[in-house]
Amino acid sequence: MTTARTSEGEELIPVYIMGKCYMVPPSLTIMKAMEWAGYKLIRGVGCRGGFCGACATAYRIQGDPKLYFGLACQTVVQPGMYLAQLPFFPARRASYDIAQLEPTPTTLFSLYPELLRCLGCGTCTKACPQEIDVRAYMAAGMRGDIAKVADLSFDCIMCGLCAARCPAEEAQYNIAILARRLYGRYLAPRSRHLQERLEEIRAGKFDEAIAELKSLSVEELKARYEARDIEPA
Amino acid sequence: MSGYPPEMQESIRRVEATRARRLKETFPAMSMDERDEILHKFHPDYKEETFRAIRVGVSKGQKMPIELADVVEGRPHIDPDFDLSDPIAETDVLVIGGGGAGASAALLAQEHGAKVILVTKLRFGDANTMMAQGGIQAADRPEDSPAIHYLDVMGGGHFTNVPELVEALVMDAPFVIKWLEDLGVMFDKEPDGTMVERHGGGTSRKRMHSARDYSGAEIMRTLRDEVRNREDDIIVIEFSPAVELVLDDEGRVAGAVVMNLETGVYGFIKAKAVVLATGGGGRLHYQGFPTTNHYGATADGVVLAYRVGARLGYLESMQYHPTGAAFPEQIVGLLVTEKVRGLGAQPVNRHGEQFVYPLEPRDVEAAAFIRECVERGNGIVTPTGQVGVWLDSPMIDIIHGPGTIERNLPAMVRQFRRFGIDITKEPILVYPTLHYQNGGVRLKADSSCDVPGLFIAGEVSGGVHGHNRLMGNSLLEITVFGRRAGRSAAEFAHKIKPGKPTLAHLERWNRELEEAGVDTGVVSPILLPDYTRHE
Lengths: 233, 535
Description:
The structure holds two protein chains of two kinds. The termini of chain A are far apart. Chain A has helices spanning 30-36, 107-111, 123-127, 134-142, 146-152, 161-165, 172-187, 192-202, 207-215, 218-227; strands spanning 13-17, 20-24, 56-61, 68-71, 81-85. Among the domains of chain A are: 13-85, Roll (Ubiquitin-like (UB roll)), CATH 3.10.20; 98-187, Alpha-helical ferredoxin (Fumarate Reductase Iron-sulfur Protein, Chain B, domain 2), CATH 1.10.1060. Chain A is 36% helix and 11% strand. In chain A, a hairpin with a 6-residue loop joins strand 3 and strand 4 (68-71). Chain B has helices at 6-22, 32-42, 66-72, 100-111, 128-131, 146-156, 163-183, 215-229, 300-307, 339-342, 362-375, 395-400, 404-408, 410-417, 474-495, 504-515; strands at 51-53, 63-65, 89-96, 116-119, 136-137, 197-198, 208-209, 234-237, 242-248, 253-259, 266-276, 312-313, 318-325, 347-348, 380-381, 387-391, 428-437, 440-442, 454-456, 461-462, 501-502. In chain B, the strands form five sheets. In chain B, strands 3, 4, 8, 9, 10, 11, 19 and 21 form an eight-stranded mixed sheet that branches. In chain B, strands 13, 14, 15, 16 and 17 form a five-stranded antiparallel sheet that branches. Chain B has a three-stranded antiparallel sheet with strand order 5-7-6. Chain B is globular. At the A-B interface, helix 1, helix 7, helix 8, helix 9 and helix 10 of A face helix 5, helix 6, helix 7, helix 8 and helix 14 of B.
């Protein structure tokens, strides 16, 4: 049997896309391997940079009983990978008016009563491609600690793998964004200098300076620009 | 174990050897003349042979990258006699695009009393906004002012920016920060509430607000969440990119034909006003450059607006972000945020020496990287032949204390750790990557354009940034002009009586193509790049 290679001489490896075998170069990410195999992707692809959560993928390796999770755009293929894309998974989302909420210890589970059903099993944490300790923030949520949920969940890309795996049928990432928004609006310390600047702008403090800059010729503007002082780093 | 091969590790040792000395010295910034010279010699925008003038339409003769011109001069998806008599939906304001600009526009249109439909090509939030890492500018510290911000924007843009647009940008900026905060965006702050603000390339004051290095993601997911809370008034339709704008018999935009990306079925959405917020075109890969952009960034909005007669501008300039990942191969072209330099990391060559001021405006910085690699041969070459320079990230923890990188750049740390590279201990290999469309549809300060009923926001527009955008002014632009577009569109929708929808402009377009003998063989907008293998 001859070994299949790319034109650059790279030896191809077998991966199984939804059960069907394709030979692909071993240096590619799952996403690029699927494209190499001929898929023009519509689902399961978004930013291609690990930020949008569109390309959640579950996989097993031949002969290995363990279930693995990753982002297709950030995970390199391995021989014998069995791939399943999870581009969409249904999850409940509460609707709310952020301006009418109060950041009390009961706010999270008043909107998401199922939060209290969390078993603390940690399946979510194992599934998270962002290495977030989902179990820990769910525990903080049960204690009503909004700030802790906001902090621990901050790197969440809302790919939905936690919800897909949860035996208690939670929608962890929706609870997390509620906590972050409550924190950002109500619990984070207010910025006094921002408030002062808004008042200054409303009072017209900068109108004259802007009008003057707008009236300058390009040459005059260049001179101003070159002469401007730079705040030290 | 290092994820870098031995020959690259050798160069890293030279970077380490010079680090202590470099911590005490910074390469001087360039004068305006030096900037000018390096741009002309090394910036991709100055490669004449990669541009051409478009041959049809209201901006005939305007130069743009060949790949973009081919798409702009493309043939429509649908025929002029496409049936508009039975719309699949009707609304006051149709927002095209599900990124930060579109979401902002939808929210403000709703707040001004409009029923809104938002259509988007992929999922809601699959957009460049989501990928923006570094931050958002706003002059809100006592040491700073909107006027200083104005000067920085004009200088960065080579003084070709439209003054009224820059004024809107810098004067709205602090209000936008407040708006985002009220929606629940978690900006980085000191315990007393003072915003943590840093420099970006070309800023004279520290005014970069951030949310760790998920700044864009934090803004996008918050805006998206808020849109979803207003489901009674805002309907979101995913996987449905617009393929053509529809006019009424009085020449006003009256909706759009969208395509269900999964079934291929076209449908007309009738609207009294349209907001175009489709983003840029990095996935056209000008000059073969890799890109930081999301999968759907194919310049659709420029195509759509141009066919209904909106003038274009500034498209002869594209932004190449100086620090795209150059290693490992799997993530080549992806963004390494400018915040890495904002925090103190210096660019150095293979000998471990500085060769440029770390925070020049992006076009200048990118040109300096290209010069260092191409002309001076001081780049580092990877096993796959990709060239790059080092970004000395470990300096950050030395300057600001251990843990700073983990705390401020979690996305970057994770990105590289996935490939066995620890950026707290090893530098990052970078090279310029296609990042941003400086130009686009000519914008007015109220977010309108040449065509009545059409409002524009975000990267699809041109004029705010002149010929080069500064870091942190894109997240600002999408919110400032997204909000303005939403409000203007709602107000427009309230006062007009729509006429009869028509695609007569496509007949004129097709005729003009024929008369000019133009056939680029492209059906546009192209909607998605094709990365499938053709061997």
